[in-house]
Amino acid sequence: MSRDYVAIARQYADDVLSGAVVAGEYIRAACQRYLSDLQRSETDPGFDYRLSADRAAHACRFIECMPHTKGQHARAVNGRVPTLVMEPWQVFATVNLFGWVDADGIRRFVYCYIEVAKKNGKSTWLSGVCLYMATADGEPGAEVYTAATNYDQAKIVWSDCAAMLKKLPALAARFGAHQTIYDIKFAANNAVLKPLATDKGGSKDGLNVHCAAIDEVHAHKDSLTYDIVASGIAARQQPLVIAITTAGTDTTGVAYRERTIVTKILTGQAEHDRYFGLVYCLDSGDDWRNEANWIKANPSVGVTIPTDYLRDKAAKVALSPTSESEFRQKSLNEWVGVRNGWISISEQWQPLADPALRESDFVGCPRFGGLDLASRNDLAGWVSLYARQEPGQDRVHWYAFCHQYINEKSAETAAQRLAQQAANRARESGNAHYPAWASAGWLTVTPGNTTDQDQIERDLIESNRDSPFNELGFDNFNAAMMAGHLLDDGVQMVDVPMRVNPLSPAMRWLESLIADGRLHHDGNPVLSWCLGNVTVKPDANDNIFPRKDAPELKIDAAVGLIVAAARAMLWVLLLAVCQMAWMLAQALSLRVGSPWQQA
Prior knowledge:
Number of strands: 19
Mean pLDDT: 88
Distance between the termini: 73 Å
Radius of gyration: 28 Å
Strand content: 15-25%
């Protein structure tokens, strides 16, 4: 009896979001995306896709007819080899990839990136997907490639496909399968399934790719293989480029590139309706030694991967610390040695947004600013932090407002990039949002090829006259001249060097404000994007410093916020000292006023 695969996918999403299934941030985001898209498909006329239960079930049933070929699951029972029974997470992936279609019945998703720890059954599932795309997808002359940088790696999934066909003579006969050492041809639909490697001789031009499956993409030294197959899909109506991998170590490689794209889509920092992704990993701050967290990277734990297997590997780490990196990378899907994202935009930052906030409502409140002029060719500006004690609250709350500028040339270049991406259905890059942000008033565009710092200076002076800064922090390395002008105009300028101290304490203080729900903002997408681009790697003393993983991932507004926090935090400490002195004076019956009232 066939299973209700759409119901299984829905239940998986519900269980993840309810906490019944333990999952990390990115999987929760993927499940929320699925449920939101289901709602949009019923209520939003502008949403182009709907979920076809028949299309989803057709692919799922096919994959579950595939026999196991390796290990204990491949042992015959009563003369029959057990077939694959997909785990809920695999059903969820399959329903998404093959169930979503547009009004013409064309599949929605073209790109797919799945990251999961080893031994979770990803290669077996991927082999089933490849055979489906070659035979049962209804594509005449389908070309399906199992791609890698070297031929031996490329043949792993292909060999699994061949082994499956060998155990399914009826399927092989139905599609006229003929296997050689180089490929598998299917006479019934003129299709071919073959391994493809960039280290193998022969031209790679002229590929007409219906499906490309790239296993363990983290091992690729460059993006050549991925880019070759991705450029070969143009002539196909509903192609699929699917990369599946465990974590790696190279943040400059194609795996981390695609991972970054997917995580930004999932966390709302980028949009791409035709890119599907799942990233199974521990959340930032999770203790990797805690067994309860392991399921976040191992959705098939207890089925394809025994819990004792992970326990034994963890026990080995205790005896041999040199094996820690391997365990955390391969079994917990952690990019060991890679900087982690600083703040979760979807789970920590966005819930603190209040679009009703207006900076003009905070005139007269203590105000601290951070000025960042790191680039004349891109983002520059300042961020303000206002302090206000709300009625009924015994602690001060803080409110962030962002002012960022971009030059006209950079905005035009971003607009051209966005148009080209739309035409090619290319992957989202991030700063292509500049034109939309400028139109919405979140970003000020200045004339010319460089960002006009004179305009920033004029606007700052005017802003200070309306609501004076207690202090405006700046980096003397890149803003000394403007700081001098502002100081002459009465702005209280304070040099904040770009060093671990004072930035690390300021970042830790911001983390505590966010955790307490005492840092609020108006939802400015420029600030949110910059914060989402900040990566950190704690040192031996748990100090952190704001960094970025690529030049196009700007963090200027985030640095402005951190600089403002560096000054505001010292003011809070001084206020606390004054408060203690005031309490001591009260105890001595001295008449003094509250330092908060004085501030």
